[in-house]
Write a structure and sequence with these properties.
Blueprint: E1 4-7, E2 10-12, E3 18-24, E4 33-39, E5 46-52, E6 57-59, E7 67-72, E8 77-82, E9 91-98, E10 112-116
Parallel strand pairs: 2-10
Antiparallel strand pairs: 1-3, 3-8, 4-5, 4-9, 5-6, 7-8, 9-10
Length: 118
């Protein structure tokens, strides 16, 4: 299993954009799916987007058309491009891996904070 480190968060105005990165400690080429979760205070982490080994993507309804998840197997990095950001996108964003039996949710990195505010 690889270790994943998130980066790229920050403060952005509503309507703005950010790109998050998730760097892996080893090869991601054979990982079944990679995913982005987010968590707000008092809430459980929730899946936002996922990228399959074949590049296929899935998104939660609230971010469809605004977020784009992608993976660069050569760079061992997962990305999340976020456009048209809204205040409700404010959260800590985490990445994790699915080796075929579901996303691993018992071990998390530090995440990266995204704050959408004017």
């Amino acid at each position: 299993q690889v270790y994943l480190v998130e980066s790229g968060g920050g403060l952005v105005q509503p309507g703005g954009s950010l790109t998050l990165s998730c760097a892996a400690s080893g090869s991601i080429r054979d990982i079944y799916r990679l995913g982005w979760y987010r968590q707000t205070p008092g809430q459980q982490r929730a899946l936002v987007a996922a990228v399959g080994r074949d590049g296929s993507t899935e998104y939660v309804d609230s971010v469809k058309g605004r977020f784009t998840a992608s993976r660069d197997n050569a760079q061992n990095t997962l990305y999340l491009r976020m456009n048209s950001l809204k205040p409700e996108d404010t959260a800590i964003y985490y990445c994790t891996a699915d080796y075929g039996l579901g996303f691993l949710t018992d071990r998390w990195g530090l995440g990266t904070q995204v704050t959408v505010s004017s």
